[in-house]
Amino acid sequence: xxxxxxxxxxxxxxxxxxxxxxxxxxxxxxxxxxxxxxxxxxxxxxxxxxxxxxxxxxxxxxxxxxxxxxxxxxxxxxxxxxxxxxxxxxxxxxxxxxxxxxxxxxxxxxxxxxxxxxxxxxxxxxxxxxxxxxxxxxxxxxxxxxxxxxxxxxxxxxxxxxxxxxxxxxxxxxxxxxxxx
Length: 181
What we know:
Low-confidence stretches: 101-117
Radius of gyration: 16 Å
Strand order of the largest sheet: 1-2
Order of helices and strands: HHHHEEHHHH
Mean pLDDT: 81
Keywords: Sigma factor, Transcription, Transcription regulation
Strand content: under 5%
Helix content: 55-70%
Pfam family, one: Sigma70_ECF
Protein name: ECF-type sigma factor
Structural class: mainly alpha
Domain RNA polymerase sigma-70 ECF-like HTH: 3-180
Number of strands: 2
């Protein structure tokens, strides 16, 4: 299936609009599972997984990207999901004048088996600060958390070894836990 997704992505990039429907059929469920995982545990969420996926896909479609492969697509999708979540949290905070904040469960930063919930905007600001300190670690955690990518896929997209991705993820998790505690 990974090769089929890559083939359809390349065809779509080359201007074959008929590749979009079968591509969407293949990636939609994975994107929805990622969205469900990102929104799980955040009782304050008014954004539904389907809405998150649809908005992220609309943002993906508006770009003229030369897709390398499935991993590249999901890496960009991770960025778009993060942007949708941040935009939604900003709109909610603005509407409520700083009232109830949107919470996310950062499953990659678990402490003693219990998931920790974070304010979406605080997580976004912390990721920006992490990127200033270590851009590669920030990209790795973003792909793992927002994109649901495994360490092999992250290594392929970033162009480093799997042990390097493991080190980056450990560093990013520890750094975020400290920042958001």
